[in-house]
């Protein structure tokens, strides 16, 4: 995967509301992963849902570590 193939998505931390950019890889399909906030260091659940008909269309949900996404 080349960096130019990643899709940037602007999101906000569910803890401190700080904005940050996620780089999404559409070739990976749907996934659940974790990202630490760059401001408050809290663990953020990141759920990425890919549309099989359009791999570039990615839905992103963020949650706190104790939420079920």
Automatic annotation (TrEMBL):
Lineage: superkingdom:
Bacteria
Concerning Pfam families, the annotation shows:
Zn_ribbon_21 (PF14255)
Looking up InterPro entries in the UniProt record yields: UCP037225, zinc_ribbon_bacterial
What is this protein called in UniProt? Cysteine-rich CPXCG
Q: Which organism is it from?
A: Halomonas shengliensis
């Amino acid at each position: 995967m080349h960096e130019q193939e990643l899709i940037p998505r602007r999101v906000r931390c569910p803890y401190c509301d700080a904005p940050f950019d996620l780089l999404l890889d559409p070739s990976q399909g749907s996934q659940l992963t974790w990202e630490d906030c760059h401001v408050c260091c809290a663990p953020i659940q990141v759920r990425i849902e890919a549309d099989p008909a359009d791999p570039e269309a990615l839905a992103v949900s963020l949650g706190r570590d104790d939420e079920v996404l």
